[in-house]
């Protein structure tokens, strides 16, 4: 068996560092990669108005509906084919999953986060205490899975996994082109290092860094503009979803912000590796 050429490893790291620096950091206007996106996946919504968010547990999709304690939610397979519906007694405002595929829900005017134990059954999981949680706001986990977030009128509220309030972040400049109108002003999605909001007035998806700065926008071609659309927007299975209207079409877009490159770390690793090669080169 031949020996591994360890000299190639730092050389590759050096090259990667150079390429990352050439690409530059994820600055404003640079994180989506495209000015607009077409839907790459669609399926039919199985629920009545008002449509709330969608989630994916690694195997199946779930959509939710609000408007009363008897509001249903639905389960679909990975192709979007309906498996079934159930009414667990939650007036849904959001459903979301963790990295292990567990499904959670938040209901209207409630600080309680519920966890699905079986399809159609939820049990109390954690109570969000402190801060100000709007009655209508969607609640989701942040991307790292280390806490919960909600949005109301351009203010992001954060809680840790025990439900203890952490603080708020203001989205700087939130409100242009009517994006602060109800109900889209109470939704939020989390992807990588960014928060996402959607404006039904012009089909614009915005990415925000966790300091509250808008870092990029893109247009979702053909995305919904209804009240249901404003309630429904969410992130699931690597896509940003918006429903046309209740009972209509869910559209998934692969408009996912690029992660911030660790350019400096790669570059430094390359330089160190290059020095190692020079010192250890066989003469």
Provide a descriptive summary of the structure in words.
With 283 residues, this protein is mostly beta strands. It folds into two domains: 16-30 and 261-283, no CATH class; 32-257, TolB, C-terminal domain (Neuraminidase, 6 Propeller), CATH 2.120.10.30. It has three helices and 21 strands. The chain has helices at 8-23, 227-232, 263-280; strands spanning 36-37, 41-44, 51-56, 61-65, 73-76, 82-86, 92-97, 103-107, 112-118, 121-127, 139-141, 147-152, 155-160, 165-170, 189-191, 194-199, 204-209, 214-220, 234-236, 239-243, 249-253. The strands form five sheets. A five-stranded mixed beta sheet has the order 1-18-17-16-15, with no helix packed on it. Strands 2-21-20-19 form a four-stranded antiparallel beta sheet. It has a four-stranded antiparallel beta sheet with strand order 3-4-5-6. Helix 1 (8-23) runs antiparallel to helix 3. The radius of gyration is 22 Å and the shape is globular. Mean pLDDT is 87; it is low at 1-28 and 262-283.
């Amino acid at each position: 068996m031949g020996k591994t050429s360890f000299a190639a490893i730092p050389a590759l790291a050096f090259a990667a560092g150079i390429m990352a620096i050439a690409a530059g950091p994820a600055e404003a206007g640079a994180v989506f990669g495209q000015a607009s996106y077409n839907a790459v996946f669609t399926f039919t919504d199985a629920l009545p108005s008002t449509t709330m968010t969608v989630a994916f547990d690694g195997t199946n999709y779930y959509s939710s509906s609000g408007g009363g304690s008897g509001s249903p939610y639905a389960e679909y397979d990975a192709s979007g084919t309906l498996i079934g519906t159930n009414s667990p007694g939650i007036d849904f405002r959001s459903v979301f999953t963790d990295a292990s595929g567990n499904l959670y829900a938040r209901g209207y005017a409630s600080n309680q986060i519920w966890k699905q134990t079986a399809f159609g059954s939820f049990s109390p999981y954690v109570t969000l205490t402190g801060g100000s949680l709007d009655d209508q706001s969607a609640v989701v986990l942040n991307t790292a899975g280390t806490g919960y977030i909600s949005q109301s009128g351009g203010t992001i509220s954060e809680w840790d996994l025990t439900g203890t309030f952490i603080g708020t972040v203001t989205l700087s400049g939130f409100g242009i082109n009517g994006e602060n109108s109800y109900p889209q002003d109470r939704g939020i999605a989390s992807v990588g290092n960014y928060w996402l909001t959607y404006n039904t007035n012009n089909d614009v998806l915005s990415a925000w860094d966790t300091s509250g700065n808008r870092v990029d926008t893109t247009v979702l071609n053909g995305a919904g503009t209804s009240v249901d659309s404003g309630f429904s927007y969410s992130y699931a299975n690597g896509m940003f979803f918006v429903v046309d209207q209740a009972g209509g079409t869910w559209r998934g877009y692969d408009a996912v912000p690029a992660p911030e490159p660790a350019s400096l770390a790669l570059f430094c690793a390359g330089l160190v590796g290059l020095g190692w090669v020079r010192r250890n080169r066989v003469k």
